[in-house]
Amino acid sequence: MRLPNSMVKTKEVKAAEKWLGYLIGPAGALLLNAVLATYLNVYYTDVLDLTGLWGGAFLAIFPIASKVLDAITNVVMGYIIDRTKSKQGKARPWLFLSAFLVPITGILLFTVPEGSDSVKAIWVMISYNLFYSLAYTIYNMSHNLMVPLSTRDTNARGGLSVFNQIATIMMSGILVALVFPTVVMPMLGVDKAKWITFMSVLSIVALPLVLLEYFFTKERVTEEIGDSEEQISLLKQMKIVFSDKYMVLIYLYFLIYTIGSCMKNLGLVYFCNYVLGTYNDGTTQMLVSVIGGIPMGIGIFAVWPIAKRIGKRNVTMFGFLLYSLGSFICCLNPHSYVFVLGGQFIKNIGGLPSAYVFMALFADCLDHIEWKSGIRVDGAAMSIYNIIAVAIVGVATGIFNLMLSMSGYIAPTMDAAGNAIAATQPDSVISMITFSFVGLEAITGIVLAVILFFVDVEKNIEKEQEEIKARHAKVEA
Predict the structure, then answer these.
(1) Phi, psi (5° rounding) for residue 60?
(2) pTM of the entire structure?
(3) How many CA atoms lie within 13 A of 145 on its CB side?
(4) What is the mean pLDDT of residues 157-173?
(5) Cβ contacts of 12 within 8 Å, gap of 6 or more
(6) Which of 30, 262, 302 is nearest to 146 (CA)?
(7) What is the C-alpha separation between 196 and 175, in angstroms, rounded?
(8) How many angstroms separate the CA atoms of 399 and 429, rounded?
(9) What's the pLDDT tens digit per position in 206-239?
(10) Stronger pLDDT, 173 or 246, i.e. the higher one
(11) CB atoms < 10 A from the CB of 195, how many?
């Protein structure tokens, strides 16, 4: 099959590539994923009422078990990407395919048929794995490789990393932080038909936007290497990846960061419904997300200039100290709007660098590995990154649901008019939700700052990149 050509023709990164390929294009799939990260579990617990299924074991075990398959598909996808040769690059062809798979499987997540609990459980397991283990794995692997493969220019790559994260933080945040809690959730309630309709529309919107990302991206690094790239076994690739201290530290950093973020995201809705506010009151979650998230908007203009001055590692490391401080302030009085909103504001100032410059730091580690080994391991390295991302989501979801069940969580009911009626939760549930949302990240912030202290890959990266270019020029000659 012959794929359409990229609309990007220049050797340098231009404005159209930034705005269409790295900001607007990714918004659809990332928006869908952001909504799922926050609300899919709510759909399972509150709409489908699966919290007590199999004595609470189903929602605890199935997400974890599903991630075993997801981990396998990530490794396979990384192996395939590294061996894909086409005029459109090695990752972009899979980006094109994912444009059609993501919306189809996104719809299947919510169209759970009526029937016995066993029928629901089977559909949930199949649809969940079709989306996360197949469709979103293909999209996320290829999407995340766009920044490292776009260019070796560190400034241009840093700019693309910022634009890429704006798509996640700002565009998805508009729906997740503003529209969803104030308009969508009160409208949907626990009405299954409304959930299916809304999420189907959201899934379909992803299709044209992913295609836009495909048409306005370009793999300049892949083109630079050309046919000189050596094909080696997956085992050797993995050995190269894990023999590099910087990449191992980056993986450890990402693992701990993801654990904290997943537990926070899972606890957000429950925290706003039962600890800080009332069930679907339309304002609490919006205030928590917006007041806490304002720094993310301001940081678009501030983070990269600071990172260029003091280094990506340094600005991220110091940011995590603020991150921990803000979370600790929230813990002092989780029932107070003043403490929670103030703490979230400080925390998200600290989280700015990790959000906007991480992928540029990851790309530096990939270049360092290429300089040291002479081999490019983009797909293999990204497969490990994605395994951490998806596996921890599953593990965190399973643990969170098990904790909900064991602490005595009571799902809301629906009255004759279709309105949700929330139950009064026991103190054990309140404590568990509070720790998940504001407690854990007070700890992980300190740990992350310590890990980043040892990731000093930037000190020689420009020299290493020049040597890499000289090698390829020699091979071409």
Answers:
(1) -85, -40
(2) 0.73
(3) 34
(4) 74
(5) 151, 153, 156
(6) 30
(7) 17
(8) 14
(9) 999 999 999 999 999 888 876 655 667 888 889 9
(10) 246
(11) 22
